[in-house]
Design goal:
Elements: H1 3-23, H2 27-35, E1 38-41, E2 44-49, H3 53-61, H4 65-99, H5 124-148, E3 153-161, E4 164-171, H6 173-177, H7 181-212, E5 217-218, E6 223-228, E7 243-247, E8 250-251, H8 255-264, E9 269-273, E10 286-287, E11 293-294, E12 303-308, E13 319-323, H9 324-327, E14 332-333, E15 343-348, E16 355-361, E17 367-371, H10 374-379, E18 380-383, E19 386-387, H11 397-420, H12 427-439, H13 445-477
């Protein structure tokens, strides 16, 4: 939890340096900030410019105005539909937490992302880039919609708040106030509408990924290792590019198969010829600190202790030190009756959480794994795609692409939900206010104002409670 004090300390230091330099009258520093539109405050660095305004106008003019207005009118419909849906999701989440006794049902929908807490540092770049892309395209929607309604753009900006990047568009307020409620809705709903489009495009890209990557990759055989941690128990057995074909005799066609097999794998025994075991039993039996029986005294990595559920010849002959690679190549069994002829069923001597099984992969001997299966999930990353050209960098491309798309879906969905809820200081405030003016224009302004204020207050409280719920869940998991 060092992030909890490091991040505030860094921001405090930056704010102090900014204040000290300004007080000492460093004119160059002030001119530098003004020239590049930079401002520094506690927890926030902002960049603001009007130099791209003409580019936004030229981009908007590239499309016929009628097309743009039709496009953003569809966005109004989507934005208005999302208001009750997003509020319903937040209410359902809050109700489930209060009423339900099922832990899975109590999981919050909106979970604050905290780097180093519930976001691995290895995923930080994905998070920062995708939230920035989602935010910029969100604001681009507002900007293009504003230009299509002849609203002047005073400027655009980027900011970094605590640990989160973002963007904003500064519209000319007087121009906006002269618009009718439908025109306002086109502008206010444009950001949410663009986030919905991002989600749809990314989902389509994920579905079409095998065809998109087809010229460079094939996805017809096994799951391909595209990353392996140095502390992985199979670090010396698998390498980047290894194609995994089976786990414990079960075929692996994709990384989904790999995960499913690891999550449900159970320990079974192996059939061995009874007569060949007479010379292999051992009397030298000891008990490890974890309560596991050990019978191999030579500490060989290739030998492992197996046992029969009942004595084979007398009361002491039930533990056998066998070569794991040779022995586990036999038939699987739960009990001796599962074996053929004069064979018996022997089980590996393990604790209740560990498993012994074989991992088959292309081009080398099977890997004999002993340990908790989830260690493999935590230390190996897989992809469904095998490069046609054997270059190291190519192995990571499908995984990077897929992860980027998934993060973009997550970030854009979150922005769409957050900005659809009628909440103060977010798009939902202006969307709901314009919607009330549109559908209840016959009501007095006083009634409309009271209705808007009441709903905004309820929505704000609802969102705050969900965020607190999510933050509490994150901190509880990591304590």
């Amino acid at each position: 939890m060092w992030v909890a004090w490091t991040v505030p300390a860094v921001w405090l230091l930056l704010a102090v340096i900014d204040r000290v330099v300004k007080r000492k009258g460093r004119q160059r520093y002030r001119l530098f900030l003004e020239r590049y539109g930079l401002s520094v405050s506690l927890g926030r660095i902002q960049f603001y410019t009007n130099r791209v305004n003409h580019l936004l106008v030229r981009f908007s003019d590239f499309f016929p105005r009628r097309w743009l207005q039709a496009w953003f009118t569809v966005g109004v419909v989507i934005g208005l539909v999302l208001i009750p849906l997003s509020v319903g999701v937040l209410v359902f989440t809050l109700r489930s937490f209060i009423v339900s006794s099922d832990e899975e049902a109590r999981d919050p929908l909106l979970v604050p992302v905290l780097p180093g807490v519930n976001l691995p540092w290895s995923q930080l770049v994905y998070f920062l880039v995708t939230i920035a892309v989602s935010g910029v395209l969100h604001e681009l929607g507002h900007a293009v919609a504003a230009v299509s309604e002849n609203v002047h753009i005073d400027g655009v900006g980027l900011f970094f708040f605590v640990m989160y990047p973002g963007a904003f568009v500064d519209l000319h307020t007087q121009h906006v106030t002269t618009l009718n409620s439908i025109q306002k809705l086109r502008i206010f709903c444009a950001g949410v509408w663009h986030n919905v489009i991002i989600v749809f495009v990314c989902l389509l890209a994920l579905y079409c990924l095998p065809w998109i990557l087809f010229p460079l990759f094939t996805s017809t055989q096994g799951a391909v290792v595209n990353g392996i941690s140095k502390n992985s128990p199979v670090y010396n057995n698998l390498v980047v590019g290894s194609v995994i074909l089976s786990v414990d005799g079960q075929s692996v066609h994709s990384k989904a198969d790999w995960m499913a097999l690891l999550s449900k794998i159970s320990q079974h025994g192996f059939c061995a010829n009874k007569s060949s075991l007479k010379r292999m039993y051992t009397r030298a039996v000891s008990l490890s600190l974890s309560g596991v029986v050990e019978c191999c005294q030579n500490e060989s990595l290739s030998d492992f202790c197996f046992h029969s559920s009942e004595p084979l010849w007398d009361t002491k002959k039930r533990y056998f030190c066998l070569n794991a690679r040779k022995f586990t190549a036999g038939l699987h069994c739960k009990q001796t009756s599962d074996c053929l002829g004069k064979s018996v069923c022997l089980h590996p001597s393990l604790d209740s959480e560990s498993r012994l099984f074989r991992i088959s992969h292309v081009g080398s001997k099977d890997v004999i794994f002993v340990g908790h299966p989830m260690l493999l999930h935590q230390t190996i990353s897989l992809t469904d795609y095998r490069p046609r050209i054997n270059l190291f960098a190519f192995y990571r491309l499908p995984g990077v692409t897929e992860t980027f798309l998934l993060y973009l879906i997550s970030m854009s969905s979150a922005l769409a939900i957050l900005n659809s809820v009628p909440v103060y200081y977010l798009d939902g405030q202006w969307i709901f206010s314009a919607a009330v003016d549109t559908f209840f224009k016959d009501w007095s302004e006083e009634i409309r104002t009271k209705l808007t204020s009441g709903i905004l207050m309820i929505g704000t409280v609802l969102l705050v409670l969900n965020v607190i719920l999510g933050l509490t869940a994150v901190l509880n998991v990591n304590t």
